[in-house]
Automatic annotation (TrEMBL):
Protein name in the entry: YjjW family glycine radical enzyme activase
Catalysed conversion reaction: glycyl-[protein] + reduced [flavodoxin] + S-adenosyl-L-methionine = glycin-2-yl radical-[protein] + semiquinone [flavodoxin] + 5'-deoxyadenosine + L-methionine + H(+)
Keywords: 4Fe-4S, Iron, Iron-sulfur, Metal-binding, Oxidoreductase, S-adenosyl-L-methionine
NCBIfam families registered for this protein in UniProt: activase_YjjW
Organism: Irregularibacter muris
Lineage, highest ranks first: Bacteria, Bacillati, Bacillota, Clostridia, Eubacteriales
Alphabetical list of PROSITE patterns matching this protein: 4FE4S_FER_1 (PS00198), 4FE4S_FER_2 (PS51379), RADICAL_ACTIVATING (PS01087), RADICAL_SAM (PS51918)
Length: 278
C-alpha cells in the first residue's frame, strides 16, 4: 500500500470536473510552471525550519529534525506558505488510499465523484489506483487532473478504474513549453493521443497568456494529433490570473475578455465544439 503526500482535501468543489466533487491535492510536482497558482504544492518540504518562527500561533515545531504541524492550533493564516522560499508547505501529510477515502466517504451523499489534482498526482500511480478502486465501489466517478508528463499507457490497471483525465496542454512548441515549465512536452503529446483513443480524455485545458502561450499553435497541434476526436472533447480556455503566482509571471496581467472570446471563436472555427472560457 503506497501512500501519497496530501496537500489538502476540499470536501466539495464545483470547479474540478463535472458536478459536486471532493478534490484531493497531492504535494510535489515535476514541473515548475511560471504561472502556477498553487506554487506551495510544487516541492516536498525540506525541513529547513524557516516557517517555524513565522507561525503566529505556534502550530509548527521541530521534532527529530522534522518540521511538524499541529492542526488544532492552526488558524490558516498562510504565513508559513508565504514565507517558504522553496514553494512548499509544512502541512502536507502522508496518507494511504484508505485514509483519504475515509475523508471522501463523509461527503458521499453530496458528491458525484472525486478529482485528484496537485502538484502532479500521477507521480503517485499506485496510490491513485487504490483510491479509485475504493471510490468506484462507492459509485463515484474518478478523475485525474494532470500535466501529462507521466506515461499513462504504462498504467493500464489505473486507467481501467480512472473515469477520465483532465489534461493540461501548456504549449505545443518544445522550446516554449520548456521556457514556461522547465520540462519537456513529448509525453504530453503522447498522452493526448493515448487518452483520446482510449476515450479517457475528459477535458483539455489551456491557460491563456498572450505573448507567453501560443493558443492557436496548441489548437493546431491538438487537431493534427487527435483529428476528429477533438470535436467532441471538452476544451477549457483558462484566463490567466496572477493571484497566488510566485513564478516569473507573477506581475503579468490577465488577458481581456475580448481576447478570450476571440480565442474561443477561433477554436470553434477550427472545429472544436465544446469550448468553455473560465
Ligand atoms: S497557516 Fe501556517 S503560519 Fe499560519 S497558523 Fe497555520 S501553520 Fe502557522
Ligand atoms: S515549508 Fe518551506 S520554509 Fe517551512 S520547513 Fe518546509 S521548506 Fe522550510
Amino acid at each position: 500500500m503506497k501512500p501519497a503526500l496530501i496537500h489538502k482535501i476540499i470536501p466539495h468543489s464545483i470547479v474540478d470536473g463535472p458536478g459536486n466533487r471532493t478534490s484531493i491535492f497531492v504535494q510535489g510536482c515535476n514541473l515548475k510552471c511560471a504561472y502556477c497558482h498553487n506554487p506551495e504544492t510544487q516541492q516536498v518540504c525540506s525541513n529547513c525550519g524557516i516557517c517555524v518562527e513565522k507561525c503566529p500561533t505556534g502550530s509548527l515545531y521541530f521534532e527529530n529534525g522534522e518540521v511538524l504541524w499541529e492542526e488544532e492550533k492552526c488558524d490558516s493564516c498562510g504565513s508559513c506558505i508565504q514565507h517558504c522560499p522553496y514553494h512548499s508547505s509544512p502541512k502536507p501529510k502522508w496518507m494511504t488510499a484508505e485514509e483519504v477515502f475515509k475523508e471522501v466517504e463523509k461527503n458521499i451523499p453530496f458528491i458525484r465523484g472525486i478529482t485528484v489534482s496537485g502538484g502532479e498526482c500521477t507521480l503517485y500511480p499506485e496510490f491513485l489506483q487504490e483510491l479509485f478502486i475504493l471510490a468506484q465501489k462507492a459509485q463515484l466517478s474518478c478523475l485525474i487532473d494532470s500535466n501529462g508528463t507521466t506515461d499513462l499507457s504504462q498504467y493500464p490497471k489505473l486507467m481501467e478504474v480512472c473515469s477520465g483525465v483532465m489534461l493540461d496542454v501548456k504549449a505545443w512548441d518544445r522550446k516554449k513549453f520548456k521556457r514556461l515549465t522547465g520540462g519537456e512536452n513529448e509525453m504530453v503529446k503522447k498522452n493526448l493521443k493515448f487518452l483520446a483513443h482510449t476515450n479517457k480524455l475528459e477535458e483539455m485545458r489551456i491557460v491563456c497568456i498572450p505573448g507567453e502561450v501560443d493558443v492557436e499553435d496548441i489548437l493546431e497541434g491538438i487537431k493534427t494529433t487527435i483529428g476528429d476526436k477533438s470535436r467532441n472533447i471538452k476544451l477549457k480556455l483558462i484566463k490567466f490570473r496572477n493571484h497566488g503566482v510566485k513564478g516569473r509571471l507573477k506581475n503579468t496581467n490577465s488577458p481581456s475578455d475580448e481576447y478570450m472570446k476571440d480565442i474561443q471563436r477561433k477554436a470553434l472555427e477550427m472545429g472544436f465544439q465544446h469550448v468553455n472560457i473560465t
